[in-house]
Structures are given as C-alpha cells and as structure tokens.
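README, section 4: Worked example with a bound small molecule

Sections 1 through 3 covered apo chains. Here we extend the same pipeline to holo records, where the ligand is supplied as SMILES alongside the sequence. The molecule in this example is zinc ion. Nothing else about the input changes; the structure line simply encodes the ligand pose together with the chain.
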Amino acid sequence: MPGHLLDLVLPPRCPGCGATVAGQGRFCASCWLRLRFLAPPWCAGCNLPFAFDRGEGARCATCLADPPGHAGVRAAVAYGEIARTVALRLKYGGRPFYAATMAALMQRHLPIDATCLVPVPLHRRRIWSRGYNQAAMIASELARRAQVPVALHALERHRATPPLRDRSARERRATVAGAFRVAPGGRTMVRGASLVLVDDVYTSGATAEACVKVLRAAGAASVTILAWARVIEDATD
Ligand SMILES: [Zn+2]
Ligand SMILES: [Zn+2]
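The generated complex, written as structure tokens:
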C-alpha cells in the first residue's frame, strides 16, 4: 500500500519521534518543546535571530558588510534534532504529510505581498532516482494553504552539484555558481514578481543565493527565502 494511503488508515504519529498523537501532522508535547521557533528580534536583512532587541532596522555584521540580494531568510524553526528528523523523513520517505507539517509552521512567515512560490530545484537525475523534490512538495502544500500560486518548474538546476557538506563558504559558492537557470517557460512568472524561494533546510545559503541571483537577473522584483529549518550558529551576537 502506498505511503499516503497508509497515512489514512494508521493512527497519526508524531513527525519527530513516531509516538501516537491526536491528529495527523501534530508533534507530541516533548518534540514540540524541543523545536526552536524563530521569531524577532532578528536582523532586518537576513532574519538572523538576535539575542536581544537592537531596535527597528538593525542589521547583522554580514548584512552590513555585504547587503544581501534577497529580501530576507525566513524559517519556521532552527535546525536541530527534531527539525532534521522531519526534513530527512520527507527527503527520503516522500510522505506528503511531512510536507504538510512543515508548510503549516512556515505559513506565518510568508510575506503578505508574495505573488508566487518557487521551490529550489533538484537536478533531474536526482528527481529520477528519488521520484520527487522535497522542496517542491513543501512549496505545493504552502501554495494550497496560503492560496498563492506556485511555479514548480520556473527554476531549473541544469548542472548536478556534489553535496556541499564539509566545504568552506567560498567553495560552496563556487560549487553552485551557474548551476541554476530560469526555465524559458518560467520567465513571465518571474518578471516583476515578489517571489518566495522555498527549501527544506537553509544551511550556508550558498544554494539559495545562487537561485536568488538568477531570479533577480530574470527580473524578479524581490525574492524572500523561506525554509522549514535554518542552521543557526549560536553566539551570533
Ligand atoms: Zn514526538
Ligand atoms: Zn543579516
């Protein structure tokens, strides 16, 4: 029986630990308490949480030194054990209800002026082997919930890239540079749009920034990055 049908007949399970819970997609109390929800105070440029309120419009050192091309980096939760588990279960299990769980908690971070959602694409070889793109699953759920259009194929990854783990920031940027392009059929959706680039995990930002670059070059008015989880190096202040 396919996974999504099993989800209908089996008792709902916590997306974090698998304990039986009252409703599909709900976390048990213990996993819920271990999730770190991201909220202000944060950097006005990249939404990096600040340990204390620095006042309206305050920016982190990185954004002051190098103003970002994106319009913010929003994420529902900080990357931690539970957030990682949910992301991996979606990535390697492809069960739609994990995408629904993520989208439900990401929705409040969606900019009110968003005109279109664009998932970070996978290279087609990876889609063939896995069968789906987890970012596209999340973006589709978010689009359905928030009633915002989604352009699943506006962006293409035309060059496969090796995993970015264990690489320096400079190597990561060099690895993904030129890996993405706006599909010919996606140009009209991108031009002048307030886009939201959707991904599962925001790590160094190298991949998202490479996507932002090509979307802006194709005429997007703004691109906000929205992820399920964001890697937060502590003691950023
Ligand atoms: Zn749990
Ligand atoms: Zn910043």
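What to look for in the output: The CA atoms of residues 144 and 150 lie 9 Å apart. Residues 43, 45-46, 48, 59-60, 62-63 surround zinc ion (ligand 2) (CB under 6 Å).

Section 5 describes how to batch many such records.
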